[in-house]
Amino acid sequence: MAEITLKSLAHTYLSDPKSPEDYAIREMNHVWHQGGAYALLGPSGCGKSTLLNIISGLLEPSSGDVLFDGERVNALPPEGRNIAQVFQFPVIYDTMTVYDNLAFPLRNVKTPEARVHERVMEVADVLELTAQLKRKAKNLTADEKQKVSMGRGLVRDDVSAILFDEPLTVIDPQLKWKLRRKLKEIHQRFEITMVYVTHDQLEASTFADKIAVMYEGQVVQFGTPRELFETPNHTFVGYFIGSPGMNFFDVSFRDGRVLADETELSVGPGVRRAIEGARSTNVKLGIRPEFVEVHEAPVEGGMEAVVEHAQDLGTYSIVYLRLGDTPLKARIEEDQAVPVGRAYLRFPDERLGLYVDEFRVEIDHE
Ligand code: ADP
Ligand code: MG
């Protein structure tokens, strides 16, 4: 069991890196606490697998340190790190039985055979592989093979951490949901640090207590699903989390007014002052579709918008609007009528986020 600290870590696959874009991992500091259930969430190519492989020791970082419980482990090979890793595609021995595949990681560290049996039976039970134990791995379906591969990652209870790299990609959707629940159960039972890599926000939030959102080789936010939803730290988190993602407006301050292109936005004095004081030309206001107030008739402080169309999703609708030249989306619940033609919008001040150079800055509403 261990706390995993990444200190000034950076990695490039190039021999002569010149700019930040040449780095798969841009300098980062991060701590995975002992016993946590974590997700590492981000789009394809953002550096998730690179980061896991550095933690497990398959890859040596270009610079910086990996610490387990404060001890630098950079020089330790994967076998010396006591970490289990489950990959996207099954890693199993085809000619061995399912039982022997599951037993392998335990026998490898000279576990007494009685204990091997106990653990194999336990893990097989959790993953519903008991009926397959005597079969040769090569005769299994793709789903079953990946379950065996996961079982091999779960079978040792003395590891420092278990790293999962998009382990459910090849698994059928129904079974996926079930296995994710199982992993959560296993985590609760054994309290092993788990880092679960995925590009799927739903998968991340059903598994993890805390999610690290990764973008262009950096962790841009580390928080609970609720924090990522309510206060995204970076515009990317706003876009990526939520369905649909957050609305953003490029804003400027002119003649005492807050403008999105040439359209004046109706915002409170705190927001106005913050935009006036921003020292950058890259200033955005963000608001989640859930928090946009939509009215059918003019209201005090309401901004007139064009209703382009609406998508009825049963218990709620997504309304596609245009405020001046800027498109935006609003989510309204089923008990509210979808406006036709025009709508009047309000942005509650406390729901607005201000982003300068893509990062969120505090707004003083006093
Ligand atoms: P993810 O797992 O988030 O999809 P990766 O860590 O696999 O991302 O990749 C991060 C970046 O590093 C990508 O730009 C990818 O093309 C590059 N990359 C990954 N592996 C290698 C490699 N072995 N050699 C060169 N570039 C690589
Ligand atoms: Mg990957």
TrEMBL record:
Highest taxon, organism lineage: Bacteria
Which InterPro entries does the annotation name?
Answer: AAA+_ATPase, ABC_transporter-like_ATP-bd, ABC_transpr_FbpC, ABC_transpr_MalK/UgpC-like, Mo/tungstate-bd_C_term_dom, NA-bd_OB-fold, OB_MalK-like, P-loop_NTPase
Keywords from the named record? ATP-binding, Cell membrane, Membrane, Nucleotide-binding, Transport
Which SMART domains does the record cross-reference, listed alphabetically? Answer: AAA
Q: Which GO terms describe its cellular component?
A: ATP-binding cassette (ABC) transporter complex, substrate-binding subunit-containing
Q: Start and end of every ABC transporter domain?
A: 4-241
Report a single Gene Ontology molecular function.
ATP binding
User: What start-end ranges are recorded for coiled-coil regions in this protein?
Assistant: none
UniProt xrefs under Gene3D superfamilies: 2.40.50.100, Nucleic acid-binding proteins (2.40.50.140), P-loop containing nucleotide triphosphate hydrolases (3.40.50.300)
Q: Which Pfam families match?
A: ABC_tran (PF00005), OB_MalK (PF17912)
What CDD domains does UniProt report for this protein, alphabetically?
ABC_Carb_Solutes_like
Know the name of this protein? Glycerol-3-phosphate ABC transporter, ATP-binding protein
Organism, scientific name: Halomonas beimenensis
Gene designation per UniProt: glpT
